[in-house]
Amino acid sequence: MLQHHGHDVVVAGAGIAGLAATAALVAAGRDTVCLEARDRIGGRLLSEPASPGALDLGATWCWDGERRVADLAARLGIDTFEQHLAGDTLVQDATGVRRLPGNLLDAPARRFAPGAGALARALAAELPADVVRLDSPVTAIHRRATGGLEVRTPDLVLHAEHVVVAVPPALALAHIDFGPELPPELVRLARTTPVWMGAVAKVVARYPAAFWREVGLAGAAASRTGPLQELHDMSGPDGRPAALFGFAPARAVGPGFEQAVTAQLAQLFGPAAAEPDSLHIQDWSGERWTAPPAVHHLADYSLFGHPLYQRPALDGRLHWASTETADQYAGHIEGALAAAERAVHAVLALKTHALESG
Question: Could you tell me the pTM of the whole model?
Answer without folding.
Answer: 0.95
